[in-house]
Amino acid sequence: MPDLDLPPRLNGEIERLSPETRKVVIIGANGAGKSRFTRRLATGLGDRAYRLNALDALYSVTAPDPEHNTVDRLHQQASTIPAYDKERPQTRLERLMSLLVSDELAGLFRFKFSLDRSGDKPRTLPSTRMDRLIAFWREVFPGNRVLVDTGNVRFGRDDSDDTIGAARLSDGERAVLYYGTAMLYAPQNAVVMIDSPEIFLHPGTMQSVWNRLENLRPDCTMIYTTHDLEFAASRHGSTYVWVRSCNTSTQRWDYKIVPRGSILTDQISLAIMGARKPVLFIEGDHRSIDSQLYPLIFPDSTVRPLGSCNKVIEATRTFNDLNSFHHLKAQGIVDRDRRDDGEVAYLRRKNIMVPDVAEIENMLLLPEIVGAVAASRGRDSARVVDSVRRSVLKMFGHDIDEQALQHTRHRVKRTVEYRVDGRFADIGALEKHINSLTGEINPRGLYEQFRREFRGYHAAGDYESVLRVYNNKSMLPGCNVAGLCGLGNKEEYIAAVMKLLSTDSVHARAIREAVRNALEAGTEAQ
User: Fold this and answer.
1) How far, in Å, CA of 456 to CA of 393, rounded?
2) Residue 52: beta bridge partners?
């Protein structure tokens, strides 16, 4: 493929992609100008561009698209329209089906006439676009079949005689049919430009559909314009163009080519391309307490849940390493869990906030938060806080031995990981080193140390220290904080916290301050 010239930058420079570029993903925030960017790119490509959009293809269009290499132009240029087309096709999908059946019929005539002329009978019919579409359809939808009946393409299942026309397929199935057929009609070595390739497609099948579509036409260059981060991340090996803004009067853009091989080519960092604010990576998923709480605490940040703490740590580190590229700051938040002060200090130096409580549920049991919810519900906040405090301390007292064991296990595991991560001349040296670790680590000594420490917290009624070391997912319902606040269950208590945070009341300010204080505890000393 010839070089691919991108639209001009703000300073007038033209970025040129190499002929080896086979996949390009154009991504950016809403309003950044990526659609204009794509239209300008298509204009520069001339008749090399072949534009597809399922949103326009599945519904009636008022006028054909006059541009080069479109489905409408292909349909207009078709030499014949079969007699069974009683009505002119109203959608681009219908026009593609018309072309497909017309080509199939023409191919059969050519095959028959070649037999009449030569007298030689070929072993098999030549492969057609219809054959390739049927194979593609059965790959995407196993157990399904395609047949042509009286000039119409119909669809059914292998285990049933019932069939339906394309118009009765679901939107997702029609989108797959449209893209599959349209790709078969793309000109040789075309630059196929797909707007919103994720639309109508189920997230579970989207990646496999587009992998197969790319394999259907390996000669073509694919250019996707999308805001769907999951789709963008699925296009492995792509060149990613991050469109940040557009000067509409000069038709120039502020955009970046994402460095190849960087973390920006996976879902974590592609998410940042839609952000214009500092980024905050957190644990959990979109349904977790973290995802509900932290966007309300940090409204000026783009909050992204990544699942595990390791993903948060790695994403924050790598993204900040690329600060010269994107000029955004990233921070992370991970649960303290059973980390010791040394681990916490290390993470905080790496822009990872570690709260002064063991896990996110403990955050909601901070005295200030419990008191704020209780007061907002007309309860005696001091009495509620005291009751919750006594319940948590009682639970912790029953669990001291088990908690000490879990902390010992974590400390031993981390120590072994650090100590074994070294170079050894041979297996004997490694074996000798590992055997010596038991005495050096002294698990029983650690266990007794944790027991003494935890018993001290319990005896002193040190509620804050207990929240810092106590990992127990059942603590929220177990301490009856919801009932004491006049709420039905844990979920209602969590919802009450979030509802308060959606306001600017005195209670909301107390909660925000408590969370921020828990996250910032000890950071100034690092």
Assistant:
1) 12
2) 194
